[in-house]
Amino acid sequence: MQQAPKHKLDGIDLQILEELQNNGKITNVELSQRVGISAPPCLRRVNHLEDAGYIKSYHAELSANLLGYHVTIFAQVSLAKHGETNLQIFEQLVRTWPMVRECHMLAGETDFLLKIIAPDWEAYQQFLTTQLTAAVNVTHVKSSLAIRNSKHEPGIPFDLLRQTKNNAA
Question: What is the CATH number of domain 71-145?
Answer without folding.
Answer: 3.30.70.920
